[in-house]
Amino acid sequence: MDAMLECPHCHSGFPREWSASVSPFPCPSCARVMEIHVFPAFARSEKTEALAGVRALDGEACCFHHPKKRAARICDGCGIFICDLCDLDTGKQHLCPTCLEKGQTNKKLAHINNETILYDGFALGLALAPLTGMLWWIFPLSAPAALFFGIRYWKAPRSVVPRGNTRMIIALVLAVLELLAIIAGILYLVAK
Amino acid sequence: MSTATVSYRKFSATGTPSRGFGLIPTKTTIWFGEDHLLLLRRTGFIIDFHESYKRFYYGDVRGVTIEKTANWLWHAAFWGVISTAMLACVVWAWYLESVGGAIFMGLISLFFIYKVLANLFRGPSCLFKIFTAAQTEEIPCLNRIAKAHQFISQLRPIIDSVQGALPQDQILAQASGELAATTPVIKKRPAPPLSLYSGWIHVVLFSMLLTGVVLNILFLFHPHAFLRIGSSLLSWGGIIVLIACLVRQSHSPLSASLKKVTWASISYYAYATLVGLGMQVWYSIDYTVKHPGKHLNQVELLSGMYTELASNPVYKWLTVVSIILGLASGLPGLYLSLRHFLQRPRPSQS
C-alpha cells in the first residue's frame, strides 16, 4: 500500500512514511508545507453492501420505495418503512427522501436548513440607509419598506445560531421616527 | 414533522474566504453543535442579510489539514510599508512645525500600526481544510496556525467521544490495512524533480542589497550625491534580481528560511522605493514653489535633491530606517544563500 493520504492542494498521494508524522512537512509533489490530523473515521472503510440494503424474505417488512429490500427503519417524518438506502440520517432524525425534500423546501427542519434570509438585516439596512447622508432622498420609500419587513417577518426564523431581536427593534424604531418626520414635513408644508 | 432546535457554541474566529472576492463581502464563522460542526457564511455589506450553512457531522469527519501560507508575510509587508510611510508623514509634518498635521497623521498611522501588530500577534497564516468521505471543505475563519491548533484541541475530545479515541499512528495503520484489503493500489503521481538551482541569484541579490546598505551608511557620514545615486541604482537593479529570485526559488531545494527572507526583502525594496520617490516629489514641489518659472532637468534635480537632503534630519532618519530594514533581511539572506551555494551537491569528478 503506497498511498493513503492525499495532498489537499495537488491531490497526489503521500507515501506511508509521510503519513506517520503529523508535524508540518512538505508535500513530496508540490512542496507545500502542511500538517494532517486524522480521526478514527479515516480508518473506517465504506460498507457499500450494507448501504445497498438487505433483500427482504417472505413475511418481513419491506421498504416502501424498494419492495424487494428489507425495512431497516421507520421514517420520522411520515412513518413509512424505509431500507438502508432510503434512510437519510439528518443527525436528529431518520427521514425518507420525500420528507427530507419537503423539509428543505418548507424550511421546517431547522437542523438541515442550509440557508436563511436575514430579514432583520434587511429592515435595519433600509432604516439606516437614509441616515448615511448620500442616500437621504430614499427615506420616503425605505422607511415604509423597513416597517413592512419589521412587522411582516417579526416571527420569521432569524438564524440557526443565536441572534436576538435587537436589529429588528432598532429598525422598527428608526422606521417609525422616519415616518413621523415625513408626516411632520407634510404637515409643515400644508400649514405653510 | 417536528422542528428541531439546535444549540450552538461559537468558536472565536472570523474570516473571509481566501478566494473568490465577490462584490458583496462574506464573513465566515464556525460553531460547535451537539452532533455536528456548523460552517456559517454571512453575506452583506456592513449589515448581513443572508446566511448559508454547511454541516460536518462529528461521526463523518475523517481529518483536517493545515497548510502553511505566506499571506501573513504579505499582510505584514503591506501594512508595514503603509504605516512606515504614515510615520514618515508624521515626522515630516513635525519637521514643518505643523502640530495639527502631525497629530492628524499620527492618529491615522495608529490604525495602521494596530493592523501591523495585530497581524504579527495572530501569527503565521494557514489554509485549514476539513475532509469527510464525500468532501473537502476550506474553513476560511481558521486562517492562522495558532487558531487552527486551538480549534483542533477543542474538536478532538468531541470527535473522540463520537468516533472513539485512537492514536494517530494506529488510525493510519488500520487505514492502510483496510485500504490494502479493499481497494486497488492507487498509482502514485510522480513528483516533479526538484531543480538543481545553486542559489547564485540569491547571493547576487543579497550582495546588492548589502552594498546598497553600505552606500547608505557612507552617505550618512560623508553625504555625497554619487553615493545616493549609486544606492538608488542598486535598488532598482535589486528589484529586478528579486523578481528573478522569487521565480527561481519555486520548486527549488532552497531552505524555507531562505525563501522567507527573500520574501521579506520586499519590504526593504518597497520602503526604499517609496522614500526615494516621495523625496523626489517633495523636492520638486519645494523647488517649484521657491523658484517659480524655473525648471530642472533630471540630473540637476537629483544632484540638487541629494545635496540638500544630506542636511535634512528627516531624510537622515528615513535612511536609518532603510539601513535597519536592509541589514535585517540582507545579513541573514547572504548567510543562508552562501551556505546553500557552498554546500550544493556537485557532479562527482571521476
Brief account:
The complex is a heterodimer of chains A (192) and B (350). Chain A has 192 residues and is α+β, with helices and mostly antiparallel strands.
Read across the widest sheet of chain B, the strand sequence of neighbours is 1-2-3-4
Please trace the helix and strand order of chain A, writing H or E for each element: HEEHEEEEHEHHH
Number of strands of chain A: 7
Overall morphology of chain A: flat
Radius of gyration of chain B: 27 Å
Number of helices of chain B: 9
Mean pLDDT of chain B: 80
Main sheet of chain A: which strands, in order across?
A: 1-2
Commentary on this structure:
The complex is a heterodimer of chains A (192) and B (350). Chain A has 192 residues and is an alpha+beta fold. Chain A has helices at 16-19, 48-52, 97-106, 119-128, 139-152, 166-191; strands spanning 25-26, 33-38, 73-74, 81-82, 88-89, 94-95, 115-117. Chain A folds into 3 domains: 1-44, no CATH class; 48-106, no CATH class; 119-191. In chain A, the strands form 3 sheets. In chain A, strands 1-2 form a two-stranded antiparallel sheet. Chain A is flat. By secondary structure, chain B is α+β, with helices and mostly antiparallel strands. Chain B has 9 helices and 7 strands. Chain B has helices at 71-95, 99-122, 145-163, 168-182, 200-221, 225-248, 256-290, 298-309, 313-343; strands at residues 9-15, 26-32, 36-45, 47-57, 63-69, 125-131, 136-138. In chain B, helix 1 (71-95) packs antiparallel against helix 2 (99-122), helix 5 packs antiparallel against helix 6 (225-248) and helix 6 runs antiparallel to helix 7. Mean pLDDT of chain B is 80; it is low at 180-191. The chains are: A alpha+beta (192), B alpha+beta (350). Chains A and B meet through strand 2, helix 3, strand 7 and helix 4 of A and strand 3, strand 4, strand 5, strand 6 and helix 3 of B.
